[in-house]
Every structure is written in C-alpha cells, then in structure tokens.
C-alpha cells in the first residue's frame, strides 16, 4: 500500500522563518521575484509592470503570464513544486525562482494569501490559502491576464506591511529590476545601474549605500558569470582581517548587502557592487552558492583588480603611491605569494631605510645588496653607524618587509639580500694600530673589570660617526642567552637545574661595548690617570649605549647607572667631601 506524505504547513512556515530566512522582510523579495518571473514567462515583447498597493491589506499585481486553474492546483498548493525548473529538475536560466517555496514566506507576515490570476485564453481563478494548511479554489472575477496576490496581515506583523516599510523593502531588493515597479504609485525602479553612472554620481552612490567616498572605482566585467559591476576602493586603511561584504544582485534582484566570498582575501581594500545572471543563490537567497563557478568568478575579479593596480603603476605612479600608503598591508600580504604584486612593491612602495624612505628598486641601484635588519630594535642599533659608513640598511622590522625582501631574492637570481646582524658591523670597525692598542691596555683592563659582572666585553675600535662614543652590540646568540639567563634567574630550583644543564649548549659570544677611538671624549677618558674616574666614565658610556640601542635595562644595569652617575656628580661638584 502506498501513502502520500502529509505536510504540516505551520511547521514548515516556522522552519522557514526561524531557520531559513534571516528576517520576515524577505517576503517582499519573494513576491517581487514571482511577479518578475511571470512577466519573463510572458515573453520579451511584453512591457512588464508590477504595482504594489499598501493599506489594510497588501496587494501586488503583475501583468505576467498568470495561471490556469489546473496550474493553480498543481503549483500553489504543492510545496516544492515550481514551474521554473526543466524536465530534469534544473533551474531554468531565465527565472529568479527555482525552489517552489517562495510564496510560503508570505505566511511569516500573513494569515491568509489570496491569488487572483488569469492566463490568456482561460477563465480567472481565485486561490485562497490559510496558514493552517487549508486552501480553496473558486472562479475569480473577470480581469486582464496576470496575477494579483493579496496578503491579510497576521496579528503582530502589521508593521512589515506598512507603506513606509514596503517602499523601503521594494527599493532595497528591487530598484535595479528590469521591469517597472511602483509602490502606492511611486516608482522604485528606473534609475539605471549604479556602476554605469558618470563618475560623480558613482561616488555619491558609494557614499550613500556603502558609506564611503571611493579612492577609485574599478569596473568589473566577467562574461562567463554574466557579471557586471564595480569595485569601490576604500579611501582609508582597514583591518585586512575584517571581512567586508559585497552588494550582490542576481538577475538584477538584490541577493544581499554583505555577501562574502566574492573576492580573494588580499583584495580587502575593495567593496563590490555587482549583478550576475549565472551565479547561484543558496535557498535562503542570502548568500552565494559556493561552487566552482564562484571560484572562477572570484579569480576573474581578482585579475581585474590586479590589472587596475598594474595599470596605475604604468600611468599614474603618484596615485599608486597614495594607494600604497593607505593599503600597504594588504598589498604586501598579496606580494608574499604573487610575483606581479611583489614587483609592484619593489618598484613603488617606499620602505624605511637609514637613508630615508626609498623603494627596494632604488635601494638596489644605490647599494647593490638588499641589506636589512630583521627587527625594529636591530635597525635602531645599527642605522646611524651603518649610515656613517655609507652602508645602506633597510628596516625589515615592519610587518612582511623582511619576508618580502627574502622572497624577492628567492625569485630573482639577480637580486641579493643579506640580513645584517649587529655583530657583523664590527667588521666595519677599524682596529687600532699596534702602538695605540698597546698604550690602551691599562685602560682596557680597568674598563673590563668594571663591566665583567654585567657579562659585557669592552673593545676599542675606530668608527664613524665620531659623535657616537660607544655602541652596545648584541649578537643574536647573545640576545638568546640574555633571555635565557633572565628565565634562569626567575626559575625555581627544579627548573633552574634543568636550565643550567641546557645552558651548557648555549653559545657563549658575549655582547660588546665598542668604544669609539675617534670620539674625543673617549680619547680623554682613555688617557685618564685616575682609574676610578675612568671606571665611572666607562660605566656611564655603557648606560648611554644601552639606551641608544633601546636595549632593556636590567636591574643590575640600573644599579650600575645610579652608582656611576652619583660617582661622577661627586667628582664634578666642587667642595670638600664630608
Ligand atoms: N505572480 C505569479 N504569477 C504567475 N505564477 C506565479 C506567481 N507567483 C507564483 N506563481 C507560481 O507559483 C509557483 C510557486 O511559487 P513559489 O514562489 O512558491 O516558488 P518559485 O518562485 O517557483 O521558487 P522559489 O522558492 O525559488 O521562489 C511558481 O513556480 C509559479 O509557477
């Protein structure tokens, strides 16, 4: 024995309103969609018209194809049955609807739905559906071919059917539709496609609907997806991680104002407004169906945005510079895996160097090798000294910069990159002649004794600039050891033992205080016969070098600084010691 499924309409409507549609407001979209589809079905030489009248009840009339009585029974009363699919069940291309559930959404705001309809050459029919699942079919009053749907508001949902709300919703969803739509006599369509507006009007449109005046507008055209539209470039930086959605229309009907997945992540600086005749909606019609076609469309749009950037570099570099200043993070993120973008960054993005802000291309021309410091701290330590020796140095400490430099060198054998370690610079420090070296021995041993307990080695070299008396150089290995010692000091006995055992394996090159023999003050200090005063001076130079390089001041450093400062003051201020 075979039976037929029974459907509990209340249950289905509840499912739709709570789990499928984001808001009951979509009922207007579903009604508009049915009217437009009926007009499409009536044929192309047919000037379509959709009229919405609000009041006690809501009425929407179209001059579309209408339904015969047999179709009314078949289509309106069967959930999931649609006239918009072909024999194989595929959505027919020319229609907006496809699922056969749209009309049900009206039960979210109405208790009763009346469909008064007539198909050319057939008598008019009146179908009445109730939210409890009953429906009636009766002969309808004489009328022109077409359909009028009337909604009787459900208690508590009246506000969804007022003139103001309906005008707002019809404008939101339907303003780009290719048929004339009016609400209470006022047209909501007919203003054309915003991305075809002249530039000024386009900017005003963006300001009103997207909330910003665009930096530029990129026209989009992807024939394979029947897609046209525009990408509006944001005029201010945005967090690359914030997902900005796009305004997507499908066959001129708004899908949603914040659709994700239309652009690749790197293009976070653009907001699109597009219409597509091929991309598919999910059943809720609130997002795009994520399939191969969406992926291909995304790639095609990405190409067009990339093309805009490349074009800008060729025709208007100044403007490209402006763009990069605003959105450098996104462009750099993109350059990490896109060669064209990498070239763009190399040619046009000014990086911070010790010779000012210059592009990597210029830097290479001047200095050959892309020499960079990997962190901001290392850069600060080295920048002035390197500059005085005419060594160009890039600050690779900004997000992505060091990675980009490395990648550039990895993709082009012509390009060399070199990470500069603070201790590498000592090779640029000239040793002193043997005689001077010898004469400085006693001073050096005094100085070394004062700094021994801080784990610092003192050397004297000649380097530029003469104005810098001393530099504190810390190699990567030493930096690691410093952190290691700090955690050893804080650890309890058990962990202390473990860390001690480990420390055997930690390399032992020590940080260095490099005194500059070209600096007059250093020469005078080195020549002092008073070893106590020389010691105090070395300690002060040590403190000053720490601060110059923005090194952390440990408690032992702070204690040393205090005693040396007080010691020097004591020497400097005249009067008898008490
Ligand atoms: N205004 C109308 N004029 C003519 N036929 C209509 C009209 N409204 C609805 N219909 C008929 O009723 C059927 C069911 O409509 P319904 O809105 O439930 O689903 P659909 O439009 O086919 O698909 P979807 O769920 O994607 O909207 C339609 O396929 C269509 O044949």
UniProtKB/TrEMBL annotation:
The family this protein is said to belong to: Belongs to the heat shock protein 90 family.
Binding-site list for ATP: 30, 34, 62, 147
UniProt KW keywords: ATP-binding, Chaperone, Nucleotide-binding
This protein's name: HSP90 family protein
Alphabetical list of Pfam families matching this protein: HATPase_c_3 (PF13589)
Coiled coil spans: none
Histidine kinase/HSP90-like ATPase domain ranges (all copies): 19-157
């Amino acid at each position: 024995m075979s039976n037929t499924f029974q459907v509990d309409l209340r249950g289905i409507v509840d499912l739709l309103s709570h789990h499928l549609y984001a808001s009951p407001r979509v009922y207007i979209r579903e009604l508009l969609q049915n009217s437009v589809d009926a007009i499409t079905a009536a044929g192309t030489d047919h000037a379509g018209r959709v009229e919405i009248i609000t009041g006690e009840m809501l009425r929407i009339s179209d001059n579309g194809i209408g339904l015969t009585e047999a179709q009314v029974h078949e289509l309106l009363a069967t959930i999931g049955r649609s006239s918009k699919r072909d024999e194989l069940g595929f959505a027919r291309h020319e229609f907006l609807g496809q699922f056969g559930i749209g009309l049900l959404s009206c039960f979210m705001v109405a208790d009763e739905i009346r469909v008064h309809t007539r198909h050319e050459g057939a008598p008019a029919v009146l179908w009445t559906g109730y939210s409890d699942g009953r429906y009636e079919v009766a002969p309808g009053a004489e009328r022109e071919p077409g359909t009028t749907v009337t909604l009787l508001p459900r208690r508590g949902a009246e506000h969804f059917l007022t003139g103001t709300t309906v005008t707002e919703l019809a404008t939101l969803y339907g303003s780009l539709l290719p048929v004339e739509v009016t609400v209470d006599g006022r047209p909501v369509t007919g203003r054309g496609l915003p991305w075809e507006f002249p530039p000024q009007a386009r900017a005003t449109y963006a300001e009103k609907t997207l909330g910003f005046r665009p930096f530029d507008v990129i026209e989009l055209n992807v024939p394979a997806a029947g897609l046209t539209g525009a990408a509006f470039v944001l005029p201010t930086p945005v967090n690359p991680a914030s997902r900005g959605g796009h305004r997507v229309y499908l066959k001129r009907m708004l899908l949603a104002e914040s659709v994700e997945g239309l652009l690749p992540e790197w293009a976070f600086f653009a907001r699109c407004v597009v219409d597509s005749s091929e991309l598919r909606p999910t059943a809720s019609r609130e997002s795009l169906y994520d399939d191969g076609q969406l992926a291909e469309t995304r790639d095609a749009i990405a190409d067009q945005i990339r093309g805009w950037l490349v074009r800008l570099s060729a025709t208007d570099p100044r403007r490209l510079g402006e763009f990069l200043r605003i959105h450098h993070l996104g462009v750099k993120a993109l350059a990490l895996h896109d060669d064209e973008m990498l070239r763009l960054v190399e040619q046009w993005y000014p990086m911070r160097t010790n010779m000012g802000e210059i592009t990597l291309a210029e830097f290479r021309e001047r200095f050959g090798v892309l020499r960079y410091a990997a962190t901001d701290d290392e850069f600060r330590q080295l920048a002035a000294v390197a500059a005085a020796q005419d060594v160009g140095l890039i600050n690779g400490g900004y997000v992505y910069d060091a990675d980009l430099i490395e990648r550039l060198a990895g993709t082009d054998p012509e390009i060399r990159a070199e990470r500069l370690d603070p201790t590498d610079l000592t090779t640029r420090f000239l040793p002193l002649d043997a005689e001077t070296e010898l004469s400085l021995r006693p001073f050096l041993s005094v100085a070394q004794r004062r700094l021994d307990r801080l784990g610092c080695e003192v050397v004297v070299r000649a380097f530029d600039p003469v104005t810098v008396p001393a530099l504190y150089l810390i190699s990567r290995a030493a930096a690691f050891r410093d952190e290691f010692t700090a955690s050893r000091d804080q650890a309890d006995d058990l962990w202390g033992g473990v860390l001690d055992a480990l420390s055997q394996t930690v390399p032992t090159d020590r940080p260095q205080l490099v005194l500059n023999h070209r600096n007059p003050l250093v020469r005078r200090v080195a020549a002092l016969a008073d070893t106590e005063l020389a010691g105090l001076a070395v300690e002060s130079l040590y403190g000053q070098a720490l601060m110059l390089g923005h090194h952390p001041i440990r408690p032992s450093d702070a204690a040393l600084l205090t005693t040396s400062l007080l010691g020097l003051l004591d020497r400097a201020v005249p009067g008898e010691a008490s």
